[in-house]
């Protein structure tokens, strides 16, 4: 069972719960929140945490996106679909098709990618191309954890 991350307003800490008990706590603020989310990932899948941390060392500016991608993967928001993978949005507002185009570049149908806020050019975690949206990163982790390229 994976952990749950909750902000405790009384103690002003991010707490990670598992089976109804606090298993870890982290200071308030963005860094504490990310640390709690990383701990949550590690409770569920140590391999996913290791890959995510390796990518964060190389691409610290993608920390938030990498953690969100790992959460999508761990929450099983990914399904095989002809020509690619469907990734369910975290807020439940639909699915996004993630695929590799004829040029070998990753593509996603999410607004960030479609509106050009995210480019598929340049270096990025796990494979060529990037930076990438969290949906592409989730699919890349899904493939990597299942022994793919």
Strand content: 15-25%
Strand pairing plus helix content: what structural class? Answer: alpha+beta
Strand order across the largest sheet: 4-5-6-7
* Main sheet attributes: strand count, strand direction, barrel closure: 4 strands, antiparallel
Rg (C-alpha, Å):
16 Å
Shape by Cα distribution:
elongated
The ordered H/E elements are EEEHHHEEEEHH
How would you state the average pLDDT, rounded? 84
**What's the total number of strands?**
7
The separation of the N and C termini measures 28 Å
Show unreliable segments: 119-128
Helical content band: 25-40%
Number of helices: 5
What does this structure look like?
- With 149 residues, the chain is an alpha+beta fold.
- The strands form two sheets. A four-stranded antiparallel β-sheet has the order 4-5-6-7, covered by helices on one side. Strands 1-2-3 form a three-stranded antiparallel β-sheet, with helices on one face.
- The chain is elongated.
- Helix 1 (30-44) runs antiparallel to helix 2 and helix 1 runs parallel beside helix 3.
- The model is unreliable at 119-128 (pLDDT under 50).
- The chain contains five helices and seven strands.
Give a nutshell description of this structure.
The chain is an alpha+beta fold and 149 residues long.
Topology:
Layout: E1 4-8, E2 13-18, E3 21-27, H1 30-44, H2 46-58, H3 63-74, E4 78-81, E5 84-88, E6 95-100, E7 106-108, H4 111-114, H5 134-145
Antiparallel strand pairs: 1-2, 2-3, 4-5, 5-6, 6-7
Helix pairs in contact: 1-2, 1-3, 2-3, 3-5
